[in-house]
Amino acid sequence: DADVTQTPRNRITKTGKRIMLECSQTKGHDRMYWYRQDPGLGLRLIYYSFDVKDINKGEISDGYSVSRQAQAKFSLSLESAIPNQTALYFCATSQTGEGEKLFFGSGTQLSVL
Amino acid sequence: KQEVTQIPAALSVPEGENLVLNCSFTDSAIYNLQWFRQDPGKGLTSLLLIQSSQREQTSGRLNASLDKSSGRSTLYIAASQPGDSATYLCAVKAGSTLGRLYFGRGTQLTVWP
């Protein structure tokens, strides 16, 4: 089983719909992140959380919200999806103090029509 | 703002060649630097992490070096194999444990038999 699991793997939705992407981890890490990847733009940070009560905006948080339901779970919501949110979304984890190597999920390909 | 550049954007080599991928960054006040591998449709896998106090890290046929003063890192792949074909990304963590990661756009490597 994967250490960092993202669901769903693929999602097609329509403009204006609310979408939730979920991430769970079994690594016991305290830090969790949401990134999006667009062709030619690399990875950009949406939100990150250093523990359950800590939520921080990344460089492109507009149009997104997150919830850290437990240490192992971090969900990303698109309140009203728009076409330019079509991208590959990654969840990642790291542990404070252990070199902070990042571990990624397999990604969610989201298409907004 | 930290900017991370990877050159070349794409590289195609025959099997068996030794090769070097380059990563440069604009702000030398980094906490660490990571090299990742990304296969199509999959997440990122951390290959090597170099702390700011280190000069290099090795894992099997991979060797990563770090020169903070010049803002450069290289990933050396020895005796390349077709299975090494993937996109390689470097990411720089800003100057503290609370800092965020800045990603380059990657080098797409193809190793042909």
Structure explained in plain terms:
The complex is a heterodimer of chains A (113) and B (113). With 113 residues, chain A is an all-beta fold. In chain A, 0% of the residues lie in helices and 58% in strands. Chain A contains no helices and eleven strands. Chain A has strands at residues 4-7, 10-13, 19-25, 31-38, 42-51, 54-57, 64-70, 73-78, 87-94, 103-104, 108-112. Chain B has 113 residues and is mainly β. Chain B has strands spanning 4-7, 10-14, 19-25, 30-38, 44-51, 56-59, 62-67, 72-77, 86-94, 101-103, 107-112. In chain B, the strands form two sheets. In chain B, strands 2, 4, 5, 9, 10 and 11 form a six-stranded mixed β-sheet that branches. A five-stranded antiparallel β-sheet of chain B has the order 1-3-8-7-6, with no helix packed on it. In chain B, strand 4 (30-38) and strand 5 form a beta hairpin. The model of chain B has no long low-confidence stretch (mean pLDDT 93). The interface between A and B is medium-sized, with 24 and 23 residues.
